[in-house]
Task: structure prediction
Amino acid sequence: MGSPISPLALPEVSFSDDGEVRHLHLGSPWIQGSMRIKSPFDLELEYVQRMMAWLLFREPDTVAGLKAMQLGLGAGALSKFCFKKLKMHTTAVELNPQVLQACRLWFKLPPDSERLQVVLADAGREIKHDRHLATVDALQVDLYDQEAAAPVLDSEAFYSDCRRLLTDEGVMTVNLFGRDASFERSIGQMVAAFGEQAVWAFGPTREGNTVVLAQRQASRPERSVLVRRADAIATLWGLPAPKWLRMLKPWARAG
Result:
């Protein structure tokens, strides 16, 4: 399984802000997460909002009490939103203890509780534990190193492990760089693990982030159902879900 990563090998964690928005950095100028200082539990970045598109595959009144898991804590935005706004049981897996400390000190991440836990561990190892199997309703994967060049975990075996975490109606969302050479390879690994009919994708944001969804069990909800859910998501949680419907396409058709 390899040797544990030495703390000395992990990047230095820092933040910057302009008085309105605070950004997390991991030893480089790349932004690894952001928070609007006056609205710390809202989702600031467009691609992070799109990571919540799994909500389109759930009835809004069933979300509270479901289980969310984040692989890669970042600035804690997804964990805070799932815990605070959606009232979900929320677990985040993060390798770097400095990131957790930064989220607690600078990004308003609440302390661990019955509904919120942060596990300091290697995500690829943690998701193999039997206690997680078939328990996760929303799995959100954002695993980039300080250079943000390609996902740290990005193999068919890794995505197969992710699929095993999901409940029957569970959905994985993954942040990829849609203009990067690794994008097609990453999509191919997901298709191999989940099946082509289960994969959906947005177009890239202006910054180049492409959010990809993969369902544990492929489905094609009626357009009227998606529109109704999107309107409810916008009303209840302030997310631009109606706009998502213009950009989110099944990969089997879009690809």
